[in-house]
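Sanity check

After download, print the first record. It should look like this:
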Amino acid sequence: MNLHGKDIKIFTANSNPKVAAEIAACLGLPVGKSEVKTFSDGEIAVSIQESVRGSDVFVVQSTCTPVNDNLMELLIMIDAFKRASAGRVTAVMPYFGYARQDRKAKARDPISAKLVADLITAAGADRVLTMDLHAAQIQGFFDIPVDHLLGVPIMIPHFIEKIGDEHSIYTVVSPDLGSVTRARKFAERCDVPLAIIDKRRPKANVCEVMNIIGDVRDRKVIIVDDMIDTAGTLCNAANALVEIGGAKEVIACATHGVLSGPALERIEKSALKEVVLLDTIPLPENCNCSKITQLPVAPVFAEAIERIYQDKPVSPLFV
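Expected structure tokens:
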């Protein structure tokens, strides 16, 4: 039985239209005609301006800042497509907001990531396509299929070219214990050793570096993480690697550049030489930080969309 629609249609809301346009271009398709606007009282209004009856619809929307507005846009668009008799609706979320609230850290905490998963399912999404969830277990919060892409394969070629034949002077560093698996895979692909930063976090968005496990002295260091929010953890780690560990040079890479609050200022003033991000989240309009490099995710998402439409496995994209 063929479960997909009769054709592919790519639509976008307002969070990341550039990536949606690039995905559509990779597939040789136009971006679907739609309009997402806001009434004077703040209500979101969606207008789908072409037929989607029986189509395989992919809605591209990162739930980044403003998180709640972008989430509501996605939910309302999904509802509109289901009511317009789309054959299948896939929520393409390069960045999945609320992913950090995936467990009860203390008494009476909500598990907001689960709530958002339920909202997307209730709105009518048939599947979700996303990248580098804060915790892979969030896939289990959904009662619909989730295709979880990885950002590391996109960044690896950039760093292999940068490292060249100098494997002996590079080290990959995990900024905390939670990122060790990601950093280990990165180090294996680049054929360089791994070090780990052991840190203590006294309160939210504040961290204190405690210890560096591994040798980074006189080495060029690559910090690998899933996201950069206020950049406090990252900049403290970079400064500690230079001042305490004796690293020669520090580069960082992450899939999602949330870059909220003082993040850009911190990065500019830190020991970091370069920060490599994927464009799952657009850079802030006031971003004039010369240290930031963005790599495109559109080719990977376009290939995943094509494989989903053709009922082919997405797993080859993880290699």
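If your output differs, re-run the checksum step. Summary of this record's structure: The chain has a mean pLDDT of 93.
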